[in-house]
Amino acid sequence: MAAPCVRLCRRLVGRSGPAGAQRLQRGGGGGAHWNYSTSPCHCQCAAPKQTDSAEEIVIPRKKTWDKLAVLQALAATVNRDHTAVHYRFQDDPYLIPRTSPEFRLYSLSQESGRNAAKYIVNTYPHLFQKDIAEPSIPCLMPEQLEPLVNEVNVAALKERIQLRKVTASVDLYDQLVQAGTPVSLDITNTLLDLLCVYGDKEPPREDQLEPREAEAKGEETGDLQKRQRGRPRKASDLLSITWRENNNAERIFSLMPEQNEHSFCTMIRGMIKYGAYTKAMNMYTDLLNNRMKADVYTFNALISAVPELREMYNEKADLIVELLKQMAEQKVQPNLLTFNSALKSLRKCGSIAKGLSLQIINEMKYLNIEPSLATFDHLLAIFYKPAAANRPHTDIIFEVLDKIEGKHFEAQDPDDVNFFISAMRLCFDLKDLDVAYRLHKVLETGNNWMLLGDSYQQSIYYGRFFNILCMMESIDVVLKWYKALIPSLYYPNVQGMKDLLQALDTENHLHLIPRVWKDIKQLGHSNKQDLVEEVLELMGRDKHSPELQVVFADCALDMKAAYKRDQFRNVTWTATSLGNMTAVLLRGGRTQDAWGMLQLFKTNNRVPGKALLDEFLDHAKESCNKALALDLVKLAGAFSLPATSELFDRVMKDFELTDEEKGSLEVLNATSSDSSDSSDSDQE
């Protein structure tokens, strides 16, 4: 390797002379950095040093790429198709969900299908012993769920621990102890790990089809509500496990001839995980009394349990600082989760946490620990208190955005998925559209969108973002985002559609209401009475051009048909909705349909307003429809309305009536007058 480099250096010096050599030495020749000298060649090849073979530079013959490198490169060249549904769904129009309930049903069906497949494969592994896949994929083959070693020995205990058989492992351990068979400290610690992870209970199987009794109880209470909100069920949601007194973990720990740091740390983390905070603190004191030190994960658990160990704000903050100091004294290197746990506990320390949280951030900088999204989420929660009496400190959101803009984040903390939701809520409370745009740009940077959480959290984020757009942005931009987000990323709820309707009303774009109504039907909100009344209110409030009134009338008839389909879903007509729909149909030239809606007032025990009756009479006069005018007066008399006499006078004045028609109207007017007088006397 030396000879070619020497020839190259000589050629460079020969072409450019000593001046060119000096430029090369200063780093100007193709970006190479050389130590300044007066010799023609100053690279290390001219005078190689004697180095050990371990320090030799080995140049690989080829680049080793990641298995997904090609797919990632191709994916980077393609943008998301806003007109297509989410990639998780089958490319079949029949299977693509159109509404939020269908989306939840589809997601739960997918999870149920996967669990059913796991159940069949793991319950009947003998049916899948023949592996014909090429290449072989071990993860798709049945798992070993039953132990193969049936003797009472240490090997059988290790196998049952590996298979996560909690009860079988404890029983076999007791048999070994009673038989006098020595069990090593490492194996006993592994058994303690198993007991503390699952709280001395059998771990729930992911592929179970039939719910347990505890699961059924969970469905009757809060778990069913979570399912209805679209969140998938988890084993941690179904089983509420607490740390039992004198359980197997404590019993085995006390029977151990010796305990090491691993034993104490495992017990502490298990107690904290299942709510035995005071016991965990006492166990930590025993660890210190035995002149041992905890590991970083145990300190993380202790710091996260501080809000449950102390009541006063200053006591909680002091205990957090004390634990951090003990970490330094025991020379335990903190990690990202250590500081995130401290910040999360400081969220429950009131205003005293602000100064301490900044000190923690500075300590992270000193240790070169990059914060995660959970770090910034905790900071926002510490500095921003919506219920505070004084004005909350809101500048923190700008400082956080300055820090994270343009960066690519990966999941490092379970709380990372909460950042975007909390930050968008802050943007919504501040009514700051620019900050919302900056936050959304961070979300779209790289793969940061993967830290948005599950479908339920995605719906919350995009719902708040869309609400801000409808409130602060122009209608053209709102419609652009509406097309980009719905329904590929977001299924808007009733409030989201109301916000869109209010934006249309503010910008005087009511001609788009029929199109929005089609989306309301497609999204499954046509049976939401308050939303239907909102649409009718916007269409029936003012008069528009004849062309638009015809379109509104068609939309109103579609809404009426949707009401008939949903009449068994607690959708009832109110006087306002009936009046608006009747007015829309009347203005659109659908006189017969409008008259039918007017008949529904009596059917639904509603009373039409005087303005609606006057508009009906004006329409009858314009169209010279004497029969409609007479029927209108008769209808008002049937309702015994006070406006009957006024309608009678207008009909007698504006229409040419026969003597028979005048006589019938006079009788009806007299009857309605007597009825109104009697009702007035009853009220007195």
Topology:
Blueprint: H1 2-25, H2 69-75, H3 100-123, H4 154-162, H5 166-178, H6 185-198, H7 213-220, H8 222-228, H9 235-238, H10 248-255, H11 261-273, H12 277-289, H13 296-304, H14 306-309, H15 313-329, H16 336-346, H17 353-366, H18 373-383, H19 396-404, H20 419-430, H21 433-443, H22 455-472, H23 475-485, H24 494-506, H25 513-522, H26 529-540, H27 546-565, H28 575-587, H29 591-603, H30 610-622, H31 626-638, H32 644-654, H33 659-683
Helix pairs in contact: 4-5, 6-10, 6-11, 11-12, 11-13, 13-15, 13-16, 16-17, 16-18, 18-20, 19-21, 20-21, 20-22, 22-23, 22-24, 24-26, 25-27, 26-28, 27-28, 28-29, 28-30, 30-31, 31-32, 31-33, 32-33
Structure description:
The protein has 684 residues and is mainly α. It is built from 33 helices and no strands. The chain is elongated and about 120 Å long. The N terminus and C terminus are likely disordered.
Sheet with the most strands, sense and barrel status: none
End-to-end distance: 115 Å
**What structural class do the secondary elements suggest?**
mainly alpha
Oligomeric state of the chains present here: single chain
- Secondary structure tally: strands: 0
Silhouette: elongated
Tell me the Rg in angstroms.
38 Å
Helix content: 55-70%
- Strand % is under 5%
The helix count comes to 33
User: Low-confidence runs (pLDDT<50, min 5 residues)?
Assistant: 1-51, 209-239, 676-684
Mean pLDDT: 80
Can you give me a brief rundown of this structure?
The protein has 684 residues and is mostly helical. Helices cover 61% and strands 0% of the residues.
